[in-house]
Design brief:
5-stranded antiparallel sheet, Dna Ligase, domain 1, 5-stranded parallel sheet, globular, Rossmann fold, 422 residues, alpha+beta, 27% strand, 14 helices
Length: 422
């Protein structure tokens, strides 16, 4: 009997984490244009993640048992729909479900229609409308580009002037291209932020442990907003009561709302949550594993991942249980010089092998490339170093031991990842 075969779409840190966990499941893993870390574990297929027809053709020719779509853009573009139409089991929602991430305005309308708690907001289609709303409500206020902006289309403005500048940058200067044609302006919520993810088979939810992302570039949650500078899982400071409320008030109503709207969602429902004094409120939806949250969630699932993802893709999570993991995981992101505005590429990277040789350390590639056999930076977030331990403090110490082994010119990383929950 041949081994099961999985195709992973995408080439970032999240996809490296997917490939590693799937390989631990004993399946053969293929990957679209894999990064150097993925290429050590998966067989490369020469097709871009954006090439829908090419991916369908490869999946058919390779007779894969499952396709796992990592990034959001192919999902918004309908890749999962095309794969399912060809009879290929796919983990990831169709374009109708992916609109929850593809359009923040759509997501806010969805939450309002289905009674899911979220911040008060206004959707604005012109700069004049946005400025008028800003004058009416003042600051602090959150300015969000409606479309996909690689996790960077959000400005938490503390002053009216800062918000006005963000509106002009997005709508007039097209900082995020077409993603900023429409803006969502919303109240600035106060509280602790967590990432709540659940596997979904279209009918059932299987919630994963909560994680916490660290979005700001600098320690103490200062500096520019980024795609994520680190993560921790679980989050022991969140009470069992809050976890129960997140499931009852956010995750289950989200699935019910999708079903009401006629959407069969098979993939990851991700809700970015602010735990306010009035309870959990949704900041945003994603429709895939978070990054860098995947780098703390997936190592804790390990060899069970293939069975979980295939069950969800086939529409039947009944009787499936998550493995019990007592370990904590902490990820520290190493970013390139100039990130997030103008990341520098081409710097030589050393010490990855030494880091991975340490007990409890895993290094996930994100923005790396091989140049004549030498590993170099090729993107903003370069590597994610994950440490495992019996406690969050132990996991963080392990991760930072790994970070200390790695070097490249201009490397940026935060030294306070997970301190808020240790």
């Amino acid at each position: 009997m041949r081994s099961q075969k999985v195709l992973v779409v995408g080439r970032g840190g999240r996809e490296h984490a997917l490939v590693r966990a799937l390989a631990q499941s004993g399946v053969e893993v293929l990957a679209t244009e894999p990064n150097p870390g993925m290429a050590q574990l998966a067989r490369a297929v020469a097709v871009a993640p954006s090439d829908t027809d090419g991916i369908v053709a490869v999946a058919q020719a390779e007779t894969v048992d499952l396709v796992v779509v990592g990034p959001e853009a192919p999902l918004v573009a309908g890749l999962a729909d095309a794969l399912r139409a060809s009879g290929i089991a796919t983990f990831g929602p169709g374009a109708d479900g992916a609109r929850l991430e593809g359009s923040k305005a759509f997501a806010k309308d969805f939450m309002v229609r289905h009674g899911i708690p979220t911040a008060h907001h206004r959707t604005c289609h012109t700069a004049a409308e946005a400025h008028a709303h800003l004058r009416a409500v003042g600051a602090p206020i959150v300015v969000k580009a409606d479309g996909l902006a690689a996790g960077k289309g959000v400005v938490v403005a503390q002053t009216v002037a800062e918000a006005a500048a963000a509106i002009d940058a997005m709508m007039k200067d097209r900082q995020f291209g077409a993603a900023g044609t429409t803006l969502v302006l919303e109240e600035c919520l106060v509280g602790a932020e967590v990432s709540a993810m659940a596997l979904c088979d279209g009918q059932r939810l299987l919630p994963l442990d909560l994680a916490r992302d660290h979005k700001r570039l600098l320690g103490g949650d200062q500096g520019e907003n980024t795609g994520g500078m680190g993560a921790v899982c679980p989050v022991p400071t969140v009470s069992a009561a809050d976890i129960a409320r997140i499931r009852a008030e956010v995750l289950e109503p989200t699935l019910a709302g999708l079903q009401w709207d006629g959407v069969e969602f098979r993939g990851v429902i991700y809700a970015g949550i602010m735990l306010t004094k009035d309870g959990p409120k949704v900041l945003e939806y994603n429709v895939r594993f978070g990054d860098p949250e995947a780098e703390v969630l997936l190592p804790r699932l390990g060899s069970s991942l293939y069975g979980l993802l295939r069950a969800a893709a086939r529409g039947d999570l009944s009787g499936v249980a998550l493995p019990s993991s007592q370990d904590a995981a902490v990820t520290v992101v190493l970013a390139a010089a100039g990130y997030p505005q103008a990341p520098r590429t081409g710097d030589a990277i050393g010490g990855v092998g030494a880091a991975e040789a340490l007990p409890g350390v895993q290094v996930f590639h994100a923005g790396t490339a091989l140049d004549a056999g030498l590993l170099r930076t090729s993107g903003g977030r370069v590597l994610a170093v994950t440490g495992m331990g019996a406690t969050v403090a132990e996991a963080a110490a392990t991760a930072y031991r790994g970070v200390a082994c790695i070097s490249f010119d201009g490397a940026q990383f935060r030294s306070d990842i997970a301190t808020s929950v240790r």
